[in-house]
Design a protein that fits this description.
Mean pLDDT: 76
Largest sheet: 7 strands, antiparallel
Strand content: 15-25%
Number of helices: 9
Radius of gyration: 24 Å
Strand order of the largest sheet: 1-2-3-4-7-6-5
Distance between the termini: 47 Å
Low-confidence stretches: 96-116
Shape: globular
Length: about 260
Amino acid sequence: MECKTASTLLEAYLDNELDRADMRELEAHVDGCIDCRATLTRLDELRLALRDKSLRYPAPRQLRDRIEAADAAEASSGQSHRVARRASRAWRIAAACVLMFGAGGVSVHLWNSGQVAAGERAQISRDLFASHWRALAATSPVDVASTDRHTVKPWFAGKIPGSPPVQDFAEQGFPLIGGRIDYVGSQRVAVLVYRHGQHLIDVFVLPEGAPTATGKSTQMQGYTLDSVNLGNQPAAIVSDLDQQELRRFGQLLAAMK
């Protein structure tokens, strides 16, 4: 792949809109191209920066006062009700524009809390799938390679706020192969990596309060994301296991202490 082609695919890659073949070809190019890798990094940093809550800008009280004053003035002037309605609507359109485009261009005040939570869940799901696919395409899917939980668990110390519970399930057919640090949004999270036959399984240990949908599955390009509990911590499994094996593995995780 040439840089010219790669540059047109970088944003689609970050939004998880590429098929697996294009994704892996792009990742192979980015691994060997400093310029494209730098561009991808900048785009990802911009994407994360736009999630900053400080960019959310409510309409100022002064604008609301101006709208109400304009309505009152039109009513007292004796103009027709139709003209007053048009003026009021124009002011409200202006207010909507401020909400939509002011200080960053996005207003979550037009969304209710349920819609915001759904959007956050969808973005987290895309991040988790993308992280899993990057691990599959990497030279190694782990940063620390070990089947020993007493090696893997301490490795996370100091890298994230608290080490996750770790257990090997080799006897049940799901051997631990190691762990790594990855990102969900802008937050560093622990990933426990298991294997079942030829299938790689990523277990993302999520921060408390993460907007997951426990008990629900999400499918994308032949892979499944399941929200589960890792002992008492929220977690997410991403793999191409069939549903029966994925459910059995999730039960093993939930039983951890």
